[in-house]
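Section 3.1: Structural characterization of target chains.
Under the original work plan, the team committed to producing a structural model for every single-chain target entering the pipeline before any wet-lab resources were allocated. The record below documents one such target. The sequence was received from the expression subgroup and is listed exactly as submitted; it comprises 502 residues.
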Amino acid sequence: MSRTSTDTPGTAGVSTLPTGDPGPRHRWWILAVIGVAQLMVVLDSTIVNIALPSAQKDLGFSDGDRQWVVTAYALAFGSLLLLGGRIADLFGRKMTFLVGLVGFAGASALGGAASGFEMLIAARAAQGLFGALLAPAALSLLTTTFTDAKERGKAFGVYGAIAGAGGAIGLLLGGLLTEYLDWRWTLYVNLAFAAIAFVGGLILLQRSTRDKSATIDIPGTFLVSSGLFCLVYGFSNAESHDWSSPETWGFLVAGGILLTAFTWWQTRSTHPLLPLRVLLDRNRGASFVSILITGAGMFGVFLFLTYYLQQSLGYTPVKTGLAFLPMTAGLMLAATLASTVLIPRIGPKAIVPLGMGAAAAGMVWLTGLDLNSSYTTDILPPLVVAGIGLGLVMAPAMALATDGVGAEDSGVASAAVNTMQQVGGSLGTALLNTLFSSAVTNYLDGKNPRDPAVLAQAGLEGYSTAYWWSAAFFAAGLIVSVVLYRRGVPTHDPDAAPVVHM
């Protein structure tokens, strides 16, 4: 990859697109295309959740089977992301992006037309598979399209806001579609997103050259895919089994062993699936850990506050989705401010910990909610604080996790970002659900479980426990980010190998 010594207005300082710079107007249109695709993938993790009761009633599956509608997607998505990222690097980001869009749309159509539980699960697994192609290709396209530092900050501010706010948008959209149309439209709606992104991608994206001599790391693919599958499956089992169950800890231990073997193999493979040079930069390593922790903590907001608003306060699905909008606005504002103003002037060592601290404070604030809490005075303020905190973390961490990565590694680096967020979300959901259930059970011990007032208070105890633990995740993230991030504004050594300035 070449470097240029001079820049002309509107051009990138580094030539990372072999077919030429698409121009300033095209760059921002490309961001819009990538944003639509990323929104589709992110909101799909929550849009179906609100529709689950309706889908369960329509298709007649049990409460025990219900979790697999979510887990099937997470298993395929989380375990195949690194392979998807390397495929994008080897076979072209544009082609991988377009194939991912078409496949995701087809799987969504299949799920919307599902006539039974098995068909729905197969469709959700297929969504995860094609999402694993689409998500890393989208982020790597963003990385290689925006090479100017100032423009890149703005682009990642938008992308980080979409990544963080997509879950809340999914709740609102899922509520609207379920309440006014049918649960199937929470899947059919992806056809519209995919069509817009496909047409835009086909017209605007440019083909990148690929190394035809490189091959897929088959042993590495098996080890990391199996390891991530075991981790996600183990965390998912923790929701329906005890943590002491072999089906929980057995898979977690197996996942740890497989991922350790994968790390060892990457030091010996001729064409490693995840070159360790991608992870060993200090700021990038800190960013990967920050994304993992944030993925675990933020689900405490979306998941349990959704339950609280609907079950404790009696909100409708649409009203619940609307309740999250101020948080989304705070997240997007903070993400843009962090990427364009704060990180370029101050650096991540102060900003990311500040975001972690704000998110932790928001979680602690939510522990005081009760059955008489007012949205305006009791729910809205901590939601906005948590949203601002998430914005200060997500956009800078995502930008720095791929910053300085050579174009040949941008796909797999992007996949690592999505993997961290997915594994973090699975970990957080499983752990918080288990802690929630334990708190409810402990509160009900010795009390009348048929008394509605007792049940309502038990729910509040569970929510409060989940919020405290979410706060603990973010507090750990504060410490980790303070320790790991370098001081000052991120800089790049032009002669350093293998890091290449992007």
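Residues 23-206+273-484 form a domain with the Growth Hormone; Chain: A; fold (CATH 1.20.1250.20).
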